[in-house]
Amino acid sequence: MQLLTYNLNGIRSALQKGLAEWLATQQFDVLCFQEVKATHDVVDLAPLEALGYRYHWHAAEKKGYSGVATFSKIAPDNVVQGCGLAVYDCEGRILRTDFGDITVLNCYFPSGTTGDLRQSVKMAFLADFYDYVQTLRQTRPNLIVVGDYNIAHTERDIHDPVRNKNSTGFLPEERAWMDQWFATGFTDAFRHVHPDKTEYSWWSYRAGARANNKGWRIDYISVADELQPRIESAGHFPDVIHSDHGGVFLLLSDLVNE
């Protein structure tokens, strides 16, 4: 399975910037998009369908906001919109697709950048999401949890950890949640393959941040430890630009690598 997760910051904008043309040069089986900012009926999806992808969508109730969509060349056996908690499901943040014994969760975690209220929502989401996943894994242990987590985990995952030590997305309590997450059954696919490499997945539009590679790694592919031996490669596409984020990829082998 070749998987791409990509916060598009608007799927219509990304398509206008050549997203479909770039995907035509790749071999992804599953595409997980976040922040699509649209319902499927207002987007011309013919270019993606022409590449063999079929889609499932979980839009936010608020127009032009949030939303996730999963496209795949493999037909999923089961699709579930949301996590069963209306406070998050109304914002279109979680989309589950099952492919055989593998479950992919396409997720867009809340951001706390607009103030204390949304930061409190973010922290509540982290606690509730953790519990939701721990319950889900009892019946679906082969989990892959992808998307925009809106957290840079370690100092290697942010260009200026000192100045950002009090910034949402790099707060101690957010990073502690990531510590717990990866200590209780999940592997950071990128760090598993590249333990010491510095790559980012998001750059501010301000002050030439992307040109100077002053970024944050806030988009992740978490692989259940049960699947860790099948991780063949993982990384980023920092130079493929359809959004303020970059795509993150995973290649999962069919068999365990000996």
Strand content: 25-35%
Strand order of the largest sheet: 3-4-2-1-14-13
DSSP summary, beta strand count: 14
Instruction: Give the biggest beta sheet.
Output: 6 strands, mixed
Give a verbal description of the structure.
- Helices cover 22% and strands 27% of the residues.
- The protein contains seven helices and 14 strands.
- The chain starts with a strand and ends in a 6-residue tail after the last strand.
- Strand 7 (102-108), helix 5 (116-136) and strand 8 (143-148) form a beta-alpha-beta unit.
- With 258 residues, the chain is an alpha+beta fold.
- The protein has helices spanning 11-16, 19-23, 46-49, 86-89, 116-136, 172-183, 189-193; strands spanning 2-7, 30-34, 54-58, 68-72, 78-81, 94-99, 102-108, 143-148, 186-188, 202-203, 215-216, 219-224, 231-237, 247-252.
- Helix 5 (116-136) packs parallel to helix 6 (172-183).
- The model has no long low-confidence stretch (mean pLDDT 96).
- It has a six-stranded mixed beta sheet with strand order 3-4-2-1-14-13. Strands 5-6-7-8-12-9 form a six-stranded mixed beta sheet. Strands 10-11 form a two-stranded antiparallel ribbon.
Secondary-structure topology with pairs:
Blueprint: E1 2-7, H1 11-16, H2 19-23, E2 30-34, H3 46-49, E3 54-58, E4 68-72, E5 78-81, H4 86-89, E6 94-99, E7 102-108, H5 116-136, E8 143-148, H6 172-183, E9 186-188, H7 189-193, E10 202-203, E11 215-216, E12 219-224, E13 231-237, E14 247-252
Short description:
The chain is α+β, with helices and mostly antiparallel strands. The chain has helices spanning 11-16, 19-23, 46-49, 86-89, 116-136, 172-183, 189-193, and strands spanning 2-7, 30-34, 54-58, 68-72, 78-81, 94-99, 102-108, 143-148, 186-188, 202-203, 215-216, 219-224, 231-237, 247-252. The strands form three sheets. Strands 3-4-2-1-14-13 form a six-stranded mixed sheet. Strands 5-6-7-8-12-9 form a six-stranded mixed sheet. Strands 10-11 form a two-stranded antiparallel sheet.
